[in-house]
């Protein structure tokens, strides 16, 4: 508890990012990973292997949603590039230290949707969804990876909107538009683009040994369309006991190793 409080206090972030809850969420992810390290191991192994397979080398590697770098084998992929940019609206101190130790990696603290500042300024109405441009001014990427990020984009904005009485249909339409805009922006990037994201949340009631039944599923991408994935796996993000004694949450994760190719094939 004190550890998390201190981390939240010491993590640098823009005021609007902190106010919308991104710092608390990043700290909570760290605490959850420490509690559930065994359950998370397979997902982190899969994502790291995926990153290693896509980030094969070149001038500029961009890692979107780098966060705590739990799913990023930074020290293995950074030497393959002249320059590495870690992109997140919050970079914890440990991630900043790892980036600095690489010598060619830097942290860009930016909201990839471009909507966070507008939300912080807005009264009780949702602002229009901006066209994202988080890499403005940087050299073109050779490789870009969107890392367990797409499903997260609506979470804080939708909490903000719910607290202000925005109707559910309007909230969901805004959330989906944020994800659609992210996918469209990725599709327009030069170079190779890889994407990993959870696409579905599966809640299971866990009874006596051998008894478990799915009680609810949620579309983590709010209906956003995407091509067929190259790989998929399950992330046991919250085994029974984490969010409730008899309820488990698992995420279905999809990965695309070449977003441009997958999108062209789907068209
Ligand atoms: C589930 S975490 C991804 C895991 C992360 N790669 C790691 O290993 O710790 C999602 C990340 O997306 C970031 N994020 C969420 N919304 C964002 C936004 N609008 N712009 C930039 N980063 C955002 C969060 O701060 C968080 O670090």
Q: How would you describe this protein?
A:
The protein has 267 residues and is of the alpha/beta class. It has a single domain (2-195), classed as 3-Layer(aba) Sandwich (Rossmann fold). It has helices spanning 2-10, 15-19, 22-35, 37-54, 74-77, 93-102, 116-121, 155-163, 168-188, 259-266, and strands at residues 58-64, 81-88, 105-109, 143-147, 192-206, 212-219, 231-238, 247-256. Strands 1, 2, 3, 4, 5, 6, 7 and 8 form an 8-stranded mixed β-sheet that branches. Helix 5 (74-77) links the parallel strand 1 and strand 2 (81-88). Helix 1 runs antiparallel to helix 3 and helix 8 (155-163) packs antiparallel against helix 9. The longest helix has 21 residues, at 168-188. The structure holds S-adenosylmethionine (SAM). S-adenosylmethionine (SAM) binds next to helix 3.
């Amino acid at each position: 508890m004190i550890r998390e409080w201190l981390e939240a206090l010491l993590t640098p972030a823009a005021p609007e990012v902190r106010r919308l809850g991104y710092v608390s969420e990043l700290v909570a992810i760290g605490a959850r990973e420490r509690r559930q390290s065994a359950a998370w191991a397979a997902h982190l192994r899969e994502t790291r292997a995926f990153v290693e397979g896509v980030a094969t080398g070149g001038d500029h590697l961009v890692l979107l949603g780098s966060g705590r770098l739990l799913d990023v084998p930074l020290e293995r992929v950074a030497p393959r590039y002249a320059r590495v940019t870690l992109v997140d609206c919050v970079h914890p101190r440990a991630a900043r230290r790892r980036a600095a130790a690489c010598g060619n990696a830097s942290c860009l603290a930016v909201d990839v949707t471009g909507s966070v500042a507008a939300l912080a300024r807005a009264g009780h109405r949702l602002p229009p969804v901006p066209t994202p441009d988080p890499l403005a001014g940087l050299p073109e990427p050779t490789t870009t990876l969107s890392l367990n990020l797409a499903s997260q984009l609506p979470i804080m904005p939708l909490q903000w909107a719910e607290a202000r009485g925005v109707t559910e249909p309007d909230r969901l339409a805004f959330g989906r538009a944020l994800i659609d805009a992210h996918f469209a922006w990725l599709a327009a990037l030069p170079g190779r683009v890889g994407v990993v994201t959870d696409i579905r949340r599966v809640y299971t009631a866990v009874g006596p040994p051998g008894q478990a039944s799915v009680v609810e599923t949620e579309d983590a991408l709010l209906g956003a369309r995407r091509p067929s994935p190259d790989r998929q796996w399950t992330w046991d993000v919250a085994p029974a006991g984490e969010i409730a004694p008899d309820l488990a949450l698992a995420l279905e994760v999809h990965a695309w190793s070449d977003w441009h190719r997958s999108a062209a094939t789907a068209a």
